[in-house]
Design a protein that fits this description.
heterodimer, A: alpha/beta, 44% helix, B: 728 residues, 15 strands, 63% helix, 12% strand
């Protein structure tokens, strides 16, 4: 079964995002901190991680690096509220699939899911 | 013994005193010529003395020749002195008169028989000659020169004013008495047998001249004269006593001491001579203390005041205090203080007393000859001294400037090499001169004042900096708060947008697939439309909130920044403040332009401020047009255009508005901290262009401005392109 991990410390976003993705018939894991997220990734090897950068514990970019080391096939989509050009650079250099600025739309998420082959592209 | 001897002796000795005073304390050209004049008077006095003593014709010829030679030069020097005193340019006439005097000198010495001859004794004992034709001619020339001199002086006296008038009055009275007295001494040569009483008038002239000097002329001459007098008194005593002893007590001493009588005199003389200096010092101290008691008091007051100055921290109060205090203590007609204004390179009038009498200037250019002179000399300028020194064009323009300022004295205040300001003092109400002691005390005061003024400026500026720091601190903490709040709000908006979006994608789509009545279909459509609007609004709100997070960015980091990040963030922030559409904002730039090396938050500050100002300028213009202060042919539509393009290593950015614009005067001041053209209620909202300028400087960029009142303002900014291109 396809699995998506959402790493985000803002409950409102986790909840809405999780609801949406699980409705699409995808299993959803949720975590609000970096360390737990990494454990979950290693354990469940999700197809996609939707990863906020500014989270408690291990920071988003480190989670990205570790994920790519431990489970290279897992795709990582970064979401962030920061405006920082170099964050985007660093994310891409470390193998991020995409980089979304908050606020993003569900269309953006649909596109990411489609890119990972989890849903059919519209 | 006759009166000619006595008057001659009196003239000779008094004129020597006057010569002495002038030689030692005279500094100017006028003093030199006047000294020579008095030397001629001395020769005249000497001649008269000898003539009174002469007991044969050859002695009488010699004596009168001496007197006459003195007389010739009295006339010539007198004319010269008066020309200098009155500032007349009569070089040719002066040379002519000197030539005459030399010619007469030649005639009198070489061919004295042609001048002085036909001797007879008058009034019992005085040898007098009878006038020869040449003697008569000489006398006529002499009278002409004397009359001319006095006429010039009289003319000057009538138009002069102030201290100069007093001086010329004394000089005029002195000379008239001298000439009316001295001239008729020679009358007997023309058969007018008038006893030479009048010769005492010459001595009187000297007394008047000396008195005028004492009171109105050279600086602290009264002290000098007293000292000289005391010195003479003491040493006449020391030297005179032994002689008196010899004359009157010799027989008595011989009676007691026999042939060694002189030992007593010697011992007595030695005692006096060694006691003399002490006596002299003692008397001098007492006399000076007495003469200067009032000045001393004034000086003490001034010194005390200068010590207290450092405690005053409020600049305006400080200088007002200095001015009023000096006016009161020195009893000047007017006083004023000018202080340096660095930005405008002028010295500005900051405080003034006796405004009605003061016809001063509001400001003096830093390039003015007066300022240059102060910078060079670093000493007080005294108008009187300027007047009597030989003048070149520069000094003359300084004199004019001092007259414009109603200044008798100008005292500079220096902090190291900087002329911080200067004190302008009018004449003393008493008509007395500023003594060098006055000037010394005033210089001390002015240096103390300079320190105090600098302190006060420092305190005021520190106060300003503190205010600025508080302002920045507040902005920063506001920024930090804003950042946190922005983050939270963005997340909330994001969540709402997703909930909305999810409803749209899932539930609403599902609903659409079920059979619905028309009414239900309408409801679903409305729901879909509203949900879409909610999502859009949330995205907008989230974006605005996200811009706020930029506020907390530390100001130190510099990194490559995209132009659109700067401008988008700025516009988002601005839209929190006002509706950007009402200023007709139009932004043009190439999407794929190179990155700018800088700090995003600071760069946004630049645009935020400029666009904020542009908005205010547009609103101000609209207001002015509404109030009828500004004419507009078409209905006014605000337009603000930001255009940017990269070119030769820099981004060239123009921010152009068609708002109220600025006058030239305002344009000159926009980079001064805290300068604002906006009404008080709007003050303090922006950082001010001075800080924006600093931000641009820190980015190694440039900023220029052109503006025309009523038409608008354009800021032209360049910002360097980041050298290491980072690929996205």
């Amino acid at each position: 079964m396809n699995t998506v991990l959402i790493v985000e410390d803002e409950p409102a976003i986790i909840k809405s995002l999780g609801n949406f993705i699980s409705r699409l018939g995808i299993s959803v894991l949720m975590s609000d901190n970096g360390n737990e997220a990494l454990t979950l990734i290693k354990q469940h090897r999700p197809q996609l991680v939707i990863l906020d950068i500014n989270i408690p514990g291990l920071k988003g970019l480190d989670v990205l690096k570790e994920t790519k080391k431990a489970v290279p096939q897992t795709k990582v989509a970064i979401i962030t509220g920061d405006i920082a050009e170099e964050l985007r650079e660093e994310a891409f250099q470390n193998g991020a699939l995409t980089f979304l600025n908050k606020p993003f739309t569900l269309q953006d998420i649909q596109k990411v899911l489609a890119d990972c082959g989890l849903i059919k592209a519209k | 013994m006759n009166l000619l001897i006595i008057s001659g002796l009196l003239i000779a000795s008094t004129s020597l005193v006057l010569i002495f005073i002038l030689l030692v304390y005279g500094r100017s050209n006028l003093h030199k010529v006047w000294t020579l004049f008095n030397l001629a008077v001395f020769i005249w006095g000497l001649g008269c003395f000898l003539a009174g003593k002469a007991n044969n014709t050859s002695l009488a010829t010699f004596a009168w020749a001496v007197a006459c030679i003195g007389g010739y030069f009295i006339a010539a020097f007198c004319y010269h002195t008066i020309c200098i005193f009155c500032g007349l340019k009569r070089k040719k006439t002066i040379i002519t008169f000197y030539s005459f005097a030399l010619l007469f000198l030649f005639l009198t010495t070489v061919t004295h028989k042609l001048v002085l001859a036909n001797w007879r004794i008058l009034f019992g004992s005085i040898y007098y000659n009878r006038a020869t034709p040449i003697y008569t001619l000489i006398y006529i020339e002499w009278i002409t020169v004397v009359l001319l001199s006095n006429y010039e002086l009289f003319r000057y006296l009538r138009k002069s004013k102030g201290i100069k008038r007093t001086q010329s009055l004394y000089l005029f009275i002195g000379l008239i008495i001298g000439f009316i007295g001295g001239g008729p001494t020679l009358f007997p040569a023309f058969g007018i047998n008038l006893y030479p009483f009048g010769n005492f008038g010459v001595a009187l002239y000297i007394l008047i001249g000396t008195y005028a000097i004492l009171r109105y002329r050279l600086l602290d001459i009264d002290v000098v004269v007293t000292r000289a007098g005391i010195f003479a008194f003491v040493y006449i005593l020391i030297l005179g006593f032994p002689f008196a002893l010899i004359k009157w007590f010799k027989p008595i001493l011989m009676q007691y001491l026999g042939s060694n009588w002189w030992v007593a005199i010697l011992i007595f003389g030695m005692v006096l001579a060694s006691g003399g200096p002490f006596l002299y010092m003692f008397l001098q101290r007492r006399a000076t203390a007495y003469l200067l008691r009032e000045d001393r008091r004034t000086h003490e007051l001034l010194m005390k005041a200068s010590k207290g100055l450092a405690n005053i921290r409020e600049l305006k109060r400080l200088i007002n205090l200095i001015v009023s205090f000096i006016t009161r203590t020195l009893h000047t007609t007017n006083s004023a203080i000018y202080l340096m204004e660095k930005e405008e390179a002028v010295y500005k009038l900051e405080a003034v007393r006796f405004k009605n009498r003061f016809q001063g200037l509001q400001s003096i250019d830093a390039k003015d000859p007066l300022i240059k002179f102060l910078l060079e000399s670093r000493n007080p300028i005294v108008l009187e001294e300027l007047r009597v020194t030989k003048q070149n064009g520069e000094l003359r323009s300084i004199e004019t400037q001092m007259n414009n300022l109603s200044a008798a004295v100008i005292i500079p205040s220096f902090i190291e090499e900087t002329l911080l300001g200067f004190l302008v003092l009018g004449e003393k109400k008493s008509g007395r001169m500023y003594t060098s002691d006055d000037l010394a005390v005033l210089s001390v005061l002015s240096n103390q004042a300079a320190l105090a003024i600098e302190n006060a400026i420092f305190y005021e500026e520190q106060g300003k900096t503190l205010a600025q720091q508080f302002h920045e601190h507040r902005l920063r903490s506001l920024g930090k708060m804003g950042s946190g709040i922005g983050h939270q709000i963005n997340n909330r908006f994001n969540a709402i947008a997703m909930i909305g979006g999810s409803c749209l994608i899932s539930e609403l789509e599902d609903l659409k697939k079920t059979p619905l009545s028309d009414e239900q279909k309408n409801d679903v459509e409305t729901l879909e439309k509203n949900l879409n609007e909610i999502v859009q609004e949330c995205l907008r709100g989230g974006n605005i909130a996200r811009s706020l997070t930029q506020f907390s960015r530390t100001y130190e980091e510099f990194k490559p920044v995209k132009f659109n990040e700067i401008i988008d963030g700025t516009i988002n922030l601005l839209s929190c403040k006002f509706n950007t559409e009402e200023m007709g904002l139009n932004v043009e730039y190439p999407e794929d332009g190179p990155l700018i090396l800088g700090n995003l938050a600071l760069l946004q500050d630049i645009f935020f401020n400029h666009l904020d100002n542009a908005h205010d300028a547009c609103m101000a213009k609209r207001e002015e047009i509404k109030n009828g202060n500004l004419k507009s042919e078409q209905p006014y539509r605000p337009q603000v255009k930001v255009s940017a393009h990269p070119q030769s290593g820099s981004w060239h950015i123009e921010i152009e508005d068609n708002g109220i614009g600025m006058t030239e005067e305002q344009l000159d001041q926009i980079f001064i901290p805290f300068f604002t053209t906006k009404a008080t209620s709007e003050k303090g909202t922006g950082l001010g262009l001075s800080i924006i300028k600093k931000i641009i400087d820190a980015h190694k960029g440039t900023m220029q401005v052109r503006s025309k009142y009523g038409e608008g303002t354009t800021f032209m900014i360049t910002l360097p392109i980041a050298k290491t291109e980072v690929t996205t």
